[in-house]
């Protein structure tokens, strides 16, 4: 039996339904966070809650994030016997109709969990193939920087890539500079230097992205955030990889029809993956 945490209570997954008048359903007003569980503990929970809290402030959603980060997360992990797995926190604007939410609106929130690793070893040994999306990221929209339920651009881009035989879609912004993937952040490696699009290009500030930058700095690996990385920079890269909380570090071995590092994961990408695994062990040890 699968359990979820819904509005402050642990319940069976199929015992609760969200109102069809919920603002998350009517308008896509809401946020979500996905995070990994290692050794029975939610990884980097404080960082995910901080981002969720910031997003709620931007959208004007009143939500008890303390309940999510204390009783909620622990309850879902324990009830579903998750030693290694993933969690999703979802928050919506609640059930008040009309474009403008009422001042006393109460949010809807729930947490779901799933045991097991989301990706197989084969994914990492082969690497991902990326396709440049026909959709452009808008760096001037506040939604670009939120992990919101309004995910349609990402869905369309991901479908476009999948239908063409690729694993991930990569966005350019309206100035034709690289930004991010549909569910990932992007890194490229050139001459031993790790480069990633600057947040102001129009991308979600990923938790794993932040950790990878920190790992590079602590291990004296040159790393830089740049606002003018182009498609040609990605095509000519020595290596490239993608990050998010579930995927961790995924080699990117092809962009459009161009191979990166002869269609193989690169040596620095592999080193960073090992360093990231070490970081997980340190943070998840009892």
What's the gist of this structure?
With 286 residues, the chain is α+β, with helices and mostly antiparallel strands. It contains eight helices and 15 strands. The chain has helices at residues 23-27, 45-59, 65-79, 121-126, 152-163, 207-218, 231-235, 267-284; strands spanning 3-6, 9-12, 30-38, 41-42, 85-92, 108-115, 128-137, 168-173, 178-181, 185-190, 193-197, 223-226, 239-244, 248-255, 258-259.
Verbal overview:
- Helix content is 31%, strand content 30%.
- The longest helix has 18 residues, at 267-284.
- It is built from 8 helices and 15 strands.
- Helix 6 (207-218) crosses helix 8 (267-284).
- It has helices spanning 23-27, 45-59, 65-79, 121-126, 152-163, 207-218, 231-235, 267-284, and strands spanning 3-6, 9-12, 30-38, 41-42, 85-92, 108-115, 128-137, 168-173, 178-181, 185-190, 193-197, 223-226, 239-244, 248-255, 258-259.
- Strands 7, 8, 9, 10, 11, 12, 13, 14 and 15 form a 9-stranded mixed sheet that branches. A 6-stranded antiparallel sheet has the order 2-1-6-5-3-4.
- It is of the alpha+beta class and 286 residues long.
- The mean pLDDT is 94.
- The chain has 2 domains: 3-115, 2-Layer Sandwich (D-amino Acid Aminotransferase, Chain A, domain 1), CATH 3.30.470; 121-284, D-amino Acid Aminotransferase, subunit A, domain 2 (D-amino Acid Aminotransferase, Chain A, domain 2, Alpha-Beta Barrel), CATH 3.20.10.10.
- It is globular.
């Amino acid at each position: 039996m699968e359990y979820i945490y819904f509005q402050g209570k642990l319940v069976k997954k199929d015992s609760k339904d969200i109102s069809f008048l919920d603002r998350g359903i009517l308008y896509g007003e809401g946020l979500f966070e996905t995070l990994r569980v290692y050794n029975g503990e939610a990884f980097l929970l404080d960082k995910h809650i901080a981002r969720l809290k910031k997003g709620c402030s931007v959208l004007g959603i009143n939500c008890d994030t303390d309940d999510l980060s204390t009783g909620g997360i622990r309850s879902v992990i324990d009830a579903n016997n998750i030693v290694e797995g993933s969690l999703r926190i979802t928050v919506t604007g609640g059930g008040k109709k009309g474009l403008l939410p009422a001042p006393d609106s109460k949010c809807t929130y729930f947490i779901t969990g799933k045991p097991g690793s989301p990706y197989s070893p084969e994914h990492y040994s082969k690497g991902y193939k990326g396709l440049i999306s026909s959709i452009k990221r808008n760096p001037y929209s506040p939604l670009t920087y939120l992990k919101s339920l309004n995910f349609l651009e990402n869905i369309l881009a991901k479908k476009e890539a999948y239908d063409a035989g690729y694993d991930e879609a990569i966005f350019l912004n309206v100035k034709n500079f690289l930004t991010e993937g549909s569910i990932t952040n992007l890194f490229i490696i050139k001459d031993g230097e790790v480069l990633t699009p600057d947040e102001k290009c129009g991308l979600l500030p990923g938790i794993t992205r932040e950790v990878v930058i920190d790992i590079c700095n602590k291990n004296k690996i040159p790393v830089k955030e740049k606002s003018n990385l182009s498609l040609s920079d990605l095509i000519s890269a020595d290596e490239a990889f993608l990050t998010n909380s579930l995927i961790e570090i995924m080699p990117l071995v092809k962009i459009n029809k161009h191979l990166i590092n002869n269609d193989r994961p690169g040596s620095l990408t592999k080193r960073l993956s090992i360093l990231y695994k070490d970081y997980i062990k340190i943070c998840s040890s009892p």
